[in-house]
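Consider this record:
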Amino acid sequence: MRVNVYITAHNPLNRIHSLRKVISEYLKFPGDVRLYLTVNKESEGDIDEVQFSLSDLQLLRTFLCATEPDLGFALPWTNKEVFKDHVCSRDADFYIYQEDDIVLTLDNFRYFVEWESVLRPLNLEPGFIRYESVSGRKIPFDNYHQWSFTRPTPNALITGDFQTKCVLINSERAHCLAQLGNPYYGASILTQRSAEKYIASDSFDVELSYLKSGFRDWPIADRRSMGLCFESLNKGQPHRRCVPVVKKGAYYVPIDQSLVLHNDLKYTRQLEAKDNRLMDIESFLTA
């Protein structure tokens, strides 16, 4: 198995411990893992020091540096042409793009591989829910709403309410699939087949991708993580990403492998400033 990983890091020396944690997870992956790190133009002079700090991890193939100052948060797109060349030459079996504070584990990856072939005929793909860990609790800050399968969640999107989609599936591991309001998780995983579709799609274009994400108003940086999320949707589909959930009492809880750690606490601290009664992953989705 060959896996290419493209990580975007802004001012990497400021977060070198987080970057080491992210890269260390890929040491656990089987097969050939090749890592490409993109840094901002302002950090060009730090590349040697960053490379020395990561040299023992032995996965780093090359550095890519933005050619201009990081205007408009376009840094994540700096690896676009290298990514495209790799896909066209069929350089890997999987292509992972991610930001430098997303801890994507081997269990996360195995979940994606297992569910990708199951969901493909349904025009769906395995999604993830980002969380921050506080005192053993997992806070789903991107999807911090009380979601429900039977009633709309008020003001969940900038355009208003959102009705969580429930997709029934025959599986011993999940009660059903849930499509929440925010499919973003700061990363994307593509197979060779889906990567070929992605580089030919509007979602691979810095400007055209905005028209795909539309009313969600995703900024330039976030749109690099879209993958095929908004491509070729069936009628009524809000996006293509979903997570398997299991029923626990009155709540539906995403399976552990679909939860991906954001290696920071900044969003949870913002939520705590508004309400110290934090809602966690165990109680944010009901019938």
In short: The longest strand covers residues 2-9. The helical segments are 16-26, 47-54, 80-88, 106-119, 192-199, 208-213, 220-223, 266-274. The two ends are 40 Å apart (CA to CA). DSSP finds eight helices and 18 strands in the chain.
